Amino acid sequence: MGHKELQTNLWNIIPETEISGKIPIEIVGARESFKNPFPPKIILISTHLLGEHEKYDERNLQTVNFKEKQGWAGPPIAIGHYSTDQAIHDLSGLTVITDEEYGDWGALDGHHRLEKSKKEGILWVPAVAMPSRNERVICGRWGEKGPMIMKSNVFEKFKQEDEVYPPQTTKWQILGLDEKLHKVVDMVPDFFIPTEFLKTPLKQLLNS
Prior knowledge:
The protein has one domain: Conserved hypothetical protein from pyrococcus furiosus pfu- 392566-001, ParB domain, CATH 3.90.1530.10. The protein has nine helices and twelve strands. The longest helix has 11 residues, at 3-13. It is 25% helix and 26% strand. The radius of gyration is 16 Å and the shape is globular. The model is unreliable at 1-15 (pLDDT under 50). It is an alpha/beta fold.
């Protein structure tokens, strides 16, 4: 699929809004997003609002390099809502979240990208809102040791900064339209957003 055709097809799924005109977001890869049973709900969210449910590994932070790529280049962070999937169903197109409470939304996949963003002064990140309570969204764990992790336990940790799992505990997957399990990161398109925009407050960008 050509680059221009890719842009057109994916933006038919993620409708352009006035936000799209003020913040340059380029879709640069499809991955396996065409197998995703859920329409992408893309959110731009302030980093200080996102709760986390597991720690990051300092060594893995070295693999995330925004400076070299001159911006965000890759999949959005997968997030879920603390209390309900209805908040996700109500979203349409490209949405900005700047004023909810910490932990109302939390990272499911992408903790290292989120942490590196904070360390480099990035104020907001692209995220894909997952209907994480749906039976096609699977929460497992890496490795065979340890008890089964309930989704509800993960959501509770969004607001518990000091009581999170060790690095690489949870393993989130989606049962695709092909009835196979896929990593969440492979089921969303890749984006590119220049660093200068990521380091400018969202409200300032929207009011420009």
